[in-house]
């Protein structure tokens, strides 16, 4: 599908046979596929994501996509879907704080594509995009401290664990500690 913005991802060094992957802007045409993908991964997402506990409808996905696009136009968000072999398989996004010149990133991926390095390549490219094209000084990730995969991802991104906020996030009926990670734009 044609998109207003697409950023190719590098090929995985150990998996050159994998189909090409890219980040594509989460435009309205992505909403039905992202809704189906969210529904298919809801049990996994609900373990760590507060937003996954809300009712997931196509209408809510369309409203979210519309708001993300408005924020993108205003320079306050970078909403991407991860596309692999022509199929949407995950999400990578950033909220930009222009006052502090920082960004907060987050991601998730379909279970069938987990463990192949796709998220790492997508997040690396997002961090580069934020530093190079949005000129932010700092990128941070706030993740559930109960999620060991995000800890490994943030370490591989070269992020520094700055601390843990105790009981800082409501996830379903539980309170989660939130780990704060960051990386600074190279001088």
UniProtKB/TrEMBL annotation:
Residues 32-187 form the N-acetyltransferase domain. It holds the Pfam family Acetyltransf_3. InterPro entries: Acyl_CoA_acyltransferase, GNAT_dom, Ribosomal_N-acetyltransferase. PROSITE patterns: GNAT. It comes from the Bacteria. This is GNAT family N-acetyltransferase.
